[in-house]
C-alpha cells in the first residue's frame, strides 16, 4: 500500500476527496448523516487502529470512580488559603495538565442554558443551520463539521459552532437565534474565570499575578461549541482525534447528562475525564507550555465517539489566546523561567507569533502529532 493510500484509509485519493467534498457540500454535518439513517460509519470517518479507541488502556467502560483529575475550589483562592490553591494549581498544571474548577462563581443556570442552546442550534432544521456553514476563518461565527476535514487522516463524528467572542465579539444579530440570548453572556463569565485562573497560574510560575494577563494571553476568546451525535459504530471512529489545544488556556464546559467521552493521555494510558456537576474543566494549552518553557503541560486528549443510541453529547470549549486576528507579538519562553529555578537553563522552544502558530496547527490538522514539536529547539 502506498503512503497516499494509507493516509486515505486504503482507498483511492481522488475517491476520498470526492467523498469529503460531497459530505461538506451537504452543509448538514454528521447530524445530517444520522438523520438520514446511516447504520454504518462512512469510510471518511474511519480511523486507523493506532488512534482508534480500541487500543486504550482505560476505556470509557472501565470504572474510574475516583478520577485522577484534581478538583480545585476557586472560592478558597480569595481567602487565606490562596497559597494552598496556588500550590494545587501548580501541581495540576505540571503533571496532568487538567483540573476541575468548582465554586468558580458562574451560575449553574448559565452553564446549563449555554449547553442547551448549543443542543437547540444543532437540532434545528438543516436549512436553518446551512446558512451558517462556512470554512471562511474571517467570519466570526462559523458552523461546520471537522475544521480540518481536508487536512486530517480521518474525520471525526462531531459538528462544531465557532464564535470569535473577544476582543471584538460579533453583533448579537450575527448570532443564530438559538444561541443569541446566552453566548455573549457566557463568554463574559468565562473571561472572568479565565482572568482568575491566569493570576493563579502566574503565581504558580513564581511571577506576579498579572504577568500572563499582561502578556495578552487571554485577550482573545474563541468559543468552540461541539455537538457529538450518536454513532452507530463507535469503535470505528472518534468524536475528536487526539490533540492538544491551540490556546494558552482552555475552559471546558461538559454535558453532565451524557455518558462522558473525554479522555486524557496520562502516563498510565488514556483515562476518562468525566464531567463534575457544576464544574468547569481547565486545561493548559500549547502556548502556555511554550511560554512556561515546558513547566506546564499541554496534555493530549481526545473524545471517543458517542455510544448513546439516541442522545447527542454537547460541550463548550473556551480557547483563550492572544488577539488571534491582530497579534504581532512574539511569544517565547518567559526570561525568568529560562534562567532561574528548576528551569532547563535554556529555552526549549523558539519564539512564535500566535497567527504563525495557528497557521501551523490548522495546516497540520489533527493528525496525532503535537503542534509544539515544530517549534521545539534541538540542542
Ligand atoms: C476541544 C476538546 C473536548 C470535549 O474542543 O478541543 O478537546 O469534551 N473538546 O468536547
Ligand atoms: Ni481540546
TrEMBL record:
SUPFAM superfamilies (alphabetical): Clavaminate synthase-like
Keyword check for Mitochondrion: no
UniProt KW DNA damage keyword: no
Pfam families: 2OG-FeII_Oxy, DIOX_N
PROSITE patterns (UniProt xref): FE2OG_OXY
InterPro entries linked to this entry: DIOX_N, IPNS-like_FE2OG_OXY, IPNS-like_sf, Oxoglu/Fe-dep_dioxygenase_dom
Domain (Fe2OG dioxygenase) ranges: 217-322
GO terms, molecular function: dioxygenase activity; metal ion binding
UniProt xrefs under Gene3D superfamilies: B-lactam Antibiotic, Isopenicillin N Synthase, Chain (2.60.120.330)
Entry keyword set: Iron, Metal-binding, Oxidoreductase
Family: Belongs to the iron/ascorbate-dependent oxidoreductase family.
Listed name of the protein: Fe2OG dioxygenase domain-containing protein
Biological source species: Miscanthus lutarioriparius
Amino acid at each position: 500500500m502506498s503512503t497516499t493510500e494509507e493516509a486515505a484509509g486504503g482507498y483511492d485519493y481522488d475517491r476520498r476527496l470526492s467523498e469529503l467534498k460531497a459530505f461538506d457540500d451537504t452543509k448538514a454535518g454528521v447530524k445530517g448523516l444520522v438523520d438520514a439513517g446511516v447504520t454504518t460509519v462512512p469510510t471518511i470517518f474511519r480511523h486507523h487502529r493506532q488512534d482508534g479507541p480500541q487500543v486504550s488502556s482505560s476505556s470509557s467502560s472501565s470504572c474510574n470512580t475516583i478520577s485522577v483529575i484534581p478538583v480545585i475550589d476557586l472560592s478558597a483562592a480569595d481567602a487565606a488559603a490562596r497559597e494552598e490553591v496556588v500550590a494545587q494549581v501548580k501541581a495540576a498544571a505540571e503533571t496532568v495538565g487538567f483540573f476541575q474548577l468548582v465554586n468558580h462563581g458562574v451560575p449553574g443556570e448559565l452553564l446549563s442554558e449555554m449547553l442547551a442552546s448549543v443542543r437547540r442550534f444543532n437540532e434545528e432544521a438543516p436549512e436553518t443551520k446551512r446558512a451558517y456553514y462556512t470554512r471562511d476563518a474571517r467570519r466570526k461565527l462559523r458552523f461546520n463539521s471537522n475544521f480540518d476535514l481536508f487536512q486530517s487522516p480521518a474525520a471525526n463524528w462531531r459538528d462544531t459552532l465557532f464564535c470569535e467572542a473577544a476582543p471584538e465579539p460579533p453583533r448579537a444579530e450575527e448570532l443564530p437565534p438559538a444561541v443569541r440570548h446566552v453566548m455573549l453572556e457566557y463568554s463574559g463569565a468565562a473571561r472572568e474565570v479565565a482572568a482568575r485562573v491566569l493570576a493563579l497560574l502566574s503565581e504558580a510560575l513564581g511571577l506576579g499575578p498579572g504577568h500572563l494577563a499582561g502578556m495578552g494571553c487571554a485577550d482573545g476568546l474563541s468559543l468552540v461549541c461541539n455537538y457529538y451525535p450518536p454513532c452507530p459504530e463507535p469503535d470505528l471512529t472518534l468524536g475528536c482525534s487526539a490533540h492538544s489545544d491551540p490556546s494558552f488556556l482552555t475552559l471546558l464546559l461538559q454535558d453532565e447528562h451524557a455518558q462522558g467521552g473525554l479522555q486524557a493521555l496520562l502516563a498510565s494510558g488514556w483515562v476518562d475525564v468525566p464531567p463534575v456537576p457544576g464544574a468547569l474543566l481547565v486545561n493548559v494549552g500549547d502556548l502556555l507550555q511554550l511560554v512556561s518553557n515546558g513547566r506546564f503541560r499541554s496534555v493530549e486528549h481526545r473524545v471517543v465517539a458517542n455510544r448513546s443510541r439516541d442522545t447527542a453529547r454537547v460541550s463548550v470549549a473556551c480557547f483563550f489566546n492572544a488577539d488571534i486576528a491582530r497579534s504581532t507579538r512574539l511569544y517565547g519562553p518567559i526570561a525568568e523561567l529560562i534562567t532561574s529555578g528548576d528551569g532547563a537553563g535554556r529555552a526549549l522552544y523558539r519564539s512564535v507569533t500566535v497567527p504563525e502558530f495557528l497557521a501551523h496547527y490548522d495546516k497540520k490538522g489533527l493528525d496525532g502529532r503535537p503542534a509544539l514539536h515544530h517549534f521545539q529547539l534541538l540542542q
